[in-house]
Amino acid sequence: GAVVSQHPSWVICKSGTSVKIECRSLDFQATTMFWYRQFPKQSLMLMATSNEGSKATYEQGVEKDKFLINHASLTLSTLTVTSAHPEDSSFYICSARDRSSTDTQYFGPGTRLTVL
Amino acid sequence: QKEVEQDPGPLSVPEGAIVSLNCTYSNSAFQYFMWYRQYSRKGPELLMYTYSSGNKEDGRFTAQVDKSSKYISLFIRDSQPSDSATYLCAMRPSGNTGKLIFGQGTTLQVKP
């Protein structure tokens, strides 16, 4: 099956620092990747759609200058949380769209961010 | 009204029971339907993918779609403690965006 990896799996940082999270599709090419945020006991909240070679599309209420997305290749998208604050602490999950078979999304294992 | 409604549970059943998980939706444009399983502190894992009304079976799992009623179900036979997780339904219309609309997720606990 399709495999998506995320790195790091968890990170702790100080308030005011920036954190980069990588999302990779390991065995398929993904022209589109999605970034989600999930709070405890809640469903996934879509933050943005990342398209290879073009600017990301952000959902309403998501600050594009705070959550920088770069989709540098067909297998890699990165999310950078800039000037992180404690309220940014959350579980960040990416997914990659596999259009070759079922045309659906396969999720990474998630990254737990804790901002002190 | 949310586009996709899913009972959050929690749902607790004994081992071996048949589990029924359900979602209703309001947007008749939804054409593709998925069920994901999410263990605590992990990313969602795709279980089932369907695009037509009717049943689709995969091992102990059966996905059912009724587009006329805007209702989808996931049945788990012979449930095991390892099935304890949160189950998310997801759906999307045809088209190129690929964006999924998720249900709230149902937490299932299978007791040995």
Question: What is the radius of gyration of chain A?
Answer: 13 Å
Name the pair of protein chains with the most residues at their interface, and give those residue counts. A-B, 26 and 20 residues
Along the chain, the helix and strand elements of chain B come as EEEEEEEEEEE
Query: What's the count of strands of chain A?
Result: 11
The biggest sheet of chain B, with number of strands, parallel, antiparallel or mixed sense and barrel status, is: 6 strands, mixed
**What is the strand content of chain A?**
over 45%
Oligomer: heterodimer
Range of helix content of chain A: under 10%
List its traits.
heterodimer, A: 116 residues, mainly beta, seven-stranded mixed beta sheet, four-stranded antiparallel beta sheet, 53% strand, globular, B: 112 residues, six-stranded mixed beta sheet, five-stranded antiparallel beta sheet, 0% helix
Question: What this model shows, in words?
Answer:
The complex is a heterodimer of chains A (116) and B (112). By secondary structure, chain A is mainly beta. Helix content of chain A is 0%, strand content 53%. Chain A contains no helices and eleven strands. Chain A has strands spanning 4-7, 10-13, 19-25, 32-38, 45-51, 57-58, 67-73, 76-81, 90-98, 104-107, 111-115. In chain A, a hairpin with a 5-residue loop joins strand 9 and strand 10 (104-107). The relative contact order of chain A is 0.33. Chain B is mostly beta strands. Chain B contains no helices and eleven strands. In chain B, the strands form two sheets. In chain B, strands 2, 4, 5, 9, 10 and 11 form a six-stranded mixed sheet that branches. Classes of the chains: A mainly beta (116), B mainly beta (112). At the A-B interface, strand 9 and strand 10 of A face strand 4 and strand 5 of B.
Quickly describe the structure:
The complex is a heterodimer of chains A (116) and B (112). Chain A is mostly beta strands.
